[in-house]
Design brief:
Blueprint: H1 2-12, H2 16-35, H3 61-65, H4 85-104
Length: 105
């Protein structure tokens, strides 16, 4: 997913600065929605909490600008802050599932 996002950002001229600004706005909006209780009916408690660990309310463009590219190095624009950890996790589960299936089939 990250490689595809990097290629699409290049093709459509989406700058690193634009991606960082969008990520900051997204995190701040999500944090605000949580504070307002807008997600209360959407999230099921896990281990006694409904707090999401992917929402970074203290994000800012200065912090994000210090991150290195995560996929296409050294010139990519997608970083850990602009890439969803949920798709990374899904990829890992899918890959492990394939290995387990191949090993124990």
């Amino acid at each position: 997913m990250g490689h595809s996002a990097d290629r699409l950002a290049t093709r459509f001229g989406v700058s690193r600065a634009d991606q960082d600004a969008y990520a900051v706005r997204s995190h701040k909006n999500a944090a605000s929605a949580h504070e307002q209780g807008l997600y209360d009916d959407e999230i099921i408690a896990a281990h006694g909490t409904t707090k999401e660990n992917n929402v970074k309310a203290d994000s800012n463009v200065e912090k994000l600008a210090t991150l290195k590219p995560a996929f296409i190095k050294p010139h990519g624009t997608i970083t850990p802050a602009t890439s969803s950890p949920l798709t990374d996790g899904a990829s890992a589960v899918s890959g492990i599932g394939a290995i387990v299936q191949h090993t124990y089939a």
